[in-house]
Design goal:
single chain, 172 residues, alpha+beta, Phage tail protein beta-alpha-beta fold, Ribosomal Protein S8, Chain: A, domain 1, 2 domains, three-stranded antiparallel sheet, 5 helices, 34% strand
Length: 172
C-alpha cells in the first residue's frame, strides 16, 4: 500500500510545462521542463517519469537500485536525468529513442569489451590488396597520408615506374 501511495504521489508531483525551455539552459538541454518533488522514491520510478517526459523508452537493469529525494522545479528533463544518474553513480547509453541505464562501471566494462572484440576481429580479418593509381602527383609524396590511415597490420608502398600506391590491409 505504501508503495502505491508513494507512486501516486510521485505521479501527481510531476508537473509538465509544455515545450518551454529555460533561458539559462544550454543549447543541448532545451526541451520540456519538469517539476519533481519526491522523498525516498525508488530510482527506477523516477527515471521512468523523466524518460516519459523526454519521450524516451527506458531500459533499467536489476543492478539499478536505491531511493532518491528530489526537489526540482522547472528543470529541463535531460538535466534532471543527468543529475539523478550522477547522484547514484549511473550512466546511460542511448540507442535511437531507447535509453539504457546501468552503473557507470558496467557501461565502461562493456565498452572496453566491445573495443577488445573489434581489435580481435581486425586481427583475424583477411588482408586485401588495392592498387591506387596516382595522377598529377608523385605517389611517393602521397604515401605518408595513406600510411596514416592503415590498420596495424596494413602496409603500403610505391611502384614508381607505374606511379601507383600498393596497399595491403584489412577491409574496413
Amino acid at each position: 500500500m505504501a508503495t502505491a501511495v508513494a507512486r501516486a504521489a510521485l505521479l501527481c508531483s510531476l508537473l509538465l510545462t509544455g515545450g518551454q525551455a529555460l533561458a539559462a539552459a544550454p543549447a543541448a538541454a532545451r526541451g520540456r521542463t519538469v517539476t519533481i518533488d519526491v522523498k525516498d522514491a525508488e530510482i527506477g520510478n523516477v527515471l521512468r517519469l523523466i524518460a516519459e517526459t523526454g519521450g524516451l523508452n527506458l531500459v533499467v537493469g536489476d543492478d539499478v537500485k536505491g531511493r532518491v529525494t528530489l526537489h526540482l522545479r522547472r528543470v529541463v528533463w535531460d538535466q534532471a536525468l543527468l543529475v539523478v544518474l550522477r547522484l547514484k553513480g549511473l550512466g546511460s547509453e542511448r540507442y535511437g529513442n531507447v535509453l539504457r541505464v546501468a552503473p557507470v562501471e558496467r557501461l565502461l566494462a562493456e565498452r572496453e569489451a566491445r573495443a577488445r572484440q573489434a581489435e580481435l576481429a581486425d586481427l583475424s580479418a583477411p588482408l586485401k590488396t588495392w592498387l591506387i593509381p596516382v595522377s598529377y602527383a608523385r605517389a611517393a609524396d602521397l604515401l605518408p597520408q595513406v600510411q596514416a590511415t592503415l590498420s596495424p597490420r596494413g602496409t603500403a608502398f610505391v611502384d614508381e615506374r607505374a606511379n601507383v600506391i600498393i596497399v595491403h590491409d584489412i577491409e574496413r
